Amino acid sequence: MTRSWWGWGRTDRALADDECVELAALIPGLPGRPRAVPRLRDLEVPPSRLGPPSSLPLTTDPAVRAAHSYGKAYRDVVRALAGDLGGAPDAVAHPADEDDVVRLLDWAGTAGVVVVPFGGGSSVVGGVEYRGDRPWVSMDLTRLDRVLEIDRVSRAARIQGGALGPVLEEQLRPAGLTLRHFPQSFEFSTLGGWLATRAGGHYATLHTHIDDLVESMRVVTPAGVHESWRLPGSGAGPSPDRLFLGSEGTLGVVTEAWMRLQDRPRWKASASVTFPDMTTATTAVRAISQAGLHPANCRLLDAGEAALSGASTTGECVLVLGVESAAVPVAGRLAELTGLARDAGGSVAGDPVGGAVDAADAIDAAGAIDAAGAIDAAGAIDAAGAWRAAFLRMPYVRDGLARMSAIVETFETACTWDRVDELVATVQAEVGAAVGEVTGAPGLVNCRFTHVYPDGAAPYFTVITAGRPGSEVAMWDDVKTAASEVLGRLGATITHHHAVGRDHRPGYDRQRPEPFAAALRAVKATLDPAGILNPGVLIDPV
Amino acid sequence: MTRSWWGWGRTDRALADDECVELAALIPGLPGRPRAVPRLRDLEVPPSRLGPPSSLPLTTDPAVRAAHSYGKAYRDVVRALAGDLGGAPDAVAHPADEDDVVRLLDWAGTAGVVVVPFGGGSSVVGGVEYRGDRPWVSMDLTRLDRVLEIDRVSRAARIQGGALGPVLEEQLRPAGLTLRHFPQSFEFSTLGGWLATRAGGHYATLHTHIDDLVESMRVVTPAGVHESWRLPGSGAGPSPDRLFLGSEGTLGVVTEAWMRLQDRPRWKASASVTFPDMTTATTAVRAISQAGLHPANCRLLDAGEAALSGASTTGECVLVLGVESAAVPVAGRLAELTGLARDAGGSVAGDPVGGAVDAADAIDAAGAIDAAGAIDAAGAIDAAGAWRAAFLRMPYVRDGLARMSAIVETFETACTWDRVDELVATVQAEVGAAVGEVTGAPGLVNCRFTHVYPDGAAPYFTVITAGRPGSEVAMWDDVKTAASEVLGRLGATITHHHAVGRDHRPGYDRQRPEPFAAALRAVKATLDPAGILNPGVLIDPV
Description:
The structure is a homodimer.
Chain A: H1 17-24, E1 58-59, H2 62-67, H3 74-81, E2 91-93, H4 98-111, E3 114-118, E4 136-140, E5 147-151, E6 156-160, H5 165-172, E7 177-178, H6 191-197, E8 214-221, E9 224-227, H7 240-244, E10 253-260, E11 262-263, E12 267-275, H8 278-289, E13 297-301, H9 303-309, E14 317-325, H10 331-343, E15 347-356, H11 360-365, H12 368-373, H13 383-403, E16 406-412, E17 415-416, H14 417-439, E18 444-453, E19 456-466, H15 472-489, H16 505-511, H17 514-527
Parallel strand pairs in A: 2-4, 3-4
Antiparallel strand pairs in A: 1-2, 5-6, 6-10, 7-11, 8-9, 8-10, 12-14, 12-15, 13-14, 13-18, 16-19, 17-19, 18-19
Helix pairs in contact in A: 1-13, 3-13, 3-15, 8-10, 14-15, 15-16
Pfam family, one (chains A, B): FAD_binding_4
Binding site for substrate (chains A, B): 398
Binding site for FAD (chains A, B): 117-123, 248-254
C-alpha cells in the first residue's frame, strides 16, 4: 500500500472527486468542486539546515521530509492541501535497531537538534510536528517492527515499538494470540505510539487504554535505557511504566515492550438497542457499566451520530453492545446486558447476532478493515455493522470533505456520570453556538460514547460544518478553543485517548495539578537534560 | 477497642498464655512458657528532643510515642516485646484537618524535623519507623476520618486519608455502597495508607490493588497541595495519581481521595476445588485467570497452607473460588469456573454454596471480622470458611508464637506464569535451606496465591520455625535476605502488595530501573526539598 502524504491512510482509499462533491452536497454553503491535491514535487520544502554525520540513518530527501511534517488532524490535512510545508523536519531518521536510537539521541543531544519520535504519524493533536526554531529530526521508528519473543504460557510478547498494528498482529497470529488493540488508526499507528499516547482501543469497558495491557517497557532516554521488569502486578513503589505511558516522546523513545495478549475470541455476540433520547440512553449505559459484566463493545450513538453512520435514521439513539470470549459461550452474558438495557427503557432491535466464531481467523485475518471489524462482533449486517463501516471510512470522508472546504473534526473527553448529561448538552449548545459564530451557519455537533466506566463515560464529539476556503484552520481553531473551554470549565478531561500533543496544551495545563507539573519538569530535566525530545509537548521547552 | 501497643490489632483478641503454649507445642524446640509482655510503664522511652511550638497538635507523651515506634511486622513485635523502644519518635502529631497537615509540614521543613506519615500503623516493611539520627515526628492521620461527599450516581465518594477501613465503610453503608477493599489489615489500616502503599485488597483478580479504585487524590506536599481532577479515565499525559500511588509517604501526605465504590453484592457463590499437587493446581488457576471470568476470590493454598488453616488435612492443594454481583445471579459464572477447574484436574469438593444474599447487610455489618468475611462468599462452613477464620486470626497467632520465640513471618511476590512453578519450588527449597542453616532445624515454608492475573500470579509465603530467644530478629533477617535474593534472581517483584518501606530497599533498588530511580530522586528534591518526608523509604535521604 502507499500512504497518503497529505491525508489519512492509504492513497487507494481516498475519495474520488465526484464522491467528494456528492458528500459535500449534504452540507450547505460549500464550493461546487474539490480543491486539487497538490503534487508533492510542485511544493517547496525548505532546505535542510542539517549536514548530519553520514554514519547515522538520516535522510534529507524532501519527499520523505514532507511526509513527516504533520500528523493527521483535520488542521494537518488542510495545511498539507494548502501546500504549506514550511515546518518540515530538517531530516528524517530511520533507526534500524535500538543502537541506532541511542546513537541518534547522543548525536542530537550534542548537536542541539530536536528529535520528535514518529510512529505511524497518525497524531491528531500536533504530537509529531515541531513549532520551534531549532533544527529538528523526525525519528521514524517503523523499522523496529518485530515481535521478538512470545510467551504462550503467560500470553505475552516482547514487541518492538515501531510495529504497526497489522504488522504485529500478523506475527502474533501463528501463536493463536492477539493484542486486540484496535484504535481507529490501527493500520497507521504503532505500539510505541500507542504507549506514548495512552491510546484507547478495542475494549469499551475495563481495559480501555493500552496502559492496562503493558507488562514492562524498554525506553531509550538521553540519560540511559529504562527497562522495567516483566511483572503481572507489583506494589513496589510508584509504577515506573506509568511515568512513560503518556509521556508522548518527551522523556524517551519506546523501543520495546512486553505486552499482555489475548486468545483469539471463539464466541462473539452483539445486539443493538434503541432509545428515544440521550438521557434515557445514558441512564441505561450507566446501569450496564456498573453491573460488572464488561462488554467488549458498549458504544452509544446519539441521534445525529446514528443517522450519520447509517445505524438509524429514525431519530433514535443507538447502543451497540458486543460480548466476546475465548473460554465460554457468551449468549447468556449478552442476554443479561440487553435485559439491563430493556429495563432502562431501551428497545432491542431485532435478534441478537453471534455465536461460536468458527471462522474467527477469517473475520480477523484479512487485514486492517477486518481486524478493526472485530471492534464489534460477528459480522451481521445490522446497526453495528453499518456503524463499523462508517467508522473506518470516516477519516477518508473527512479528507474528501476537507477538499470541499468543509470543517470536519472530532474531540473527545471523559467525566463522571453525575456530570455526563450536563456535559453533553452544554458542549452541544456552546460548540454549536461557536460554529454558528465562526461560520455564520449552523453545523452538526454529534456525540457518541466510545468507552464507558462504572463511574463515568467518554463522550466523543464530531463537528461538521461549512468552512471558508483558506480560513478553515483558523475557523476550526476558534471552534476548538470554545470546546476546550467548556470541557475545562466542567472538569472534563482535555483528552480521553487522543493525547495532549501541542494542540491540547492550554487545556492540559489547566487540568494538571501544579505539584505534578513541577515533578514532570524535574523528570524532564533529569532524563532529557538537553531538552531535545519533542519540546513543546506536555511541558515547555527548556 | 484498645489497640495493642506491641502486637497486632486489638488487645482483647490477643492469645492467652495457655493458648500460646498449646500452639507452640506444634513446633519442636520452643521454650515451655511465653515471654511476658512488658508493661509499657516499665520501659524506657528516650526523652524527646523536641520542644514543638504549642500551636501545633503534637504530643510528646511517652506511651503515645511508644505506640508509634514501629509497624506490625514480626520483627517489630519481637523488638517491642524485648522492650526496645530506642527508636521511638520525638513526638506524635494528630492533625485534625488538612490545614494542620500543611502547618506541620511547614514547621518540620523549617526545623529540619523528619515526618513519617502514620495511618493505621500496620506496615510490615518498616514503613512507619525512622532509622536515622534526626529528630522525628510520627504524623498519625486517623483524625482525618470522614467521608466528605458521596456521589451515588457515579458510585464514588470523597474520603479523608486517615479513615480506617471499618470507619469509612460505616459511613458508606447508608448509601448502599462499599469500597470493598478488605486487606488482612482492614481494621487497622487507613485509606491514605492503602493509597501510599498500593495495598492489595478484596479482589483476587482484575482490580487487585487499591490503585484501580482511585478517581482522584489530594496530597499535601511540602511544595504545595496536589489535587487531581475526578475522572473515570483520561489520556492526558502520564497519570498524576500514579506518581503518588506507592510513594509511601516520601512525596506527600494523602489527605483525601475520590474513590470508586461498589454496590453491595446481592448474589454470592463459592466453591472449593482440591488438586493432588501444586503444579496441577497452578495450571488450573492459570486457565481460570485467562478466561476473563474475573472471580472475586481465587485463592490457591498449597498442601501445607491448607493443613495449617484447616481447609484440608489430606495433603491436597485447595482452591477457593468466589463470585459475587450486585446486578445478576452468579451461579452460572461459578459453574463456568468450576468447570474450568475440573477440566484441569481438580475435584470440586461438595456442592457450591451461595445464592441471593438476602442478609447481605448482616454478613457485612457486624464489624471487621464480618467485613473481611466478605473476602470469600456466603457464610457456609466449608474450606473457604475455615481458611477465612484462620486468615483473620493469623496475626494474633503470630504474636502468641512470637512470645514463644517462634519465627513466624510472611513474604509475597508476583511473577509471570512461565516462571511460577520454578519460583515456588525454588523459594521453598532455598528459603527452607536458609531456615535450616539459621535455626539448625527444618521449618515450614508454605505457599498460597493471593491474587492472580491473566499473565501471572502473586505467591505468598509463610515461614514458621523455632527461633532462639534473643536472636529471633537477626535469624529472621537472615532468612528474609535469602528470600529476597531468590526473588530478585528470578525476576519476581520484591513486593506485590506489602510495599517497600525500609525492609525491602535492597530488593527494590535491584528491581527499579536506574532512569526511573533518577526521575524519582528529582521528583523528591522538587516536592520535598528539605528531605523531611519518610527518609530512607524508596530513596536515600538527601
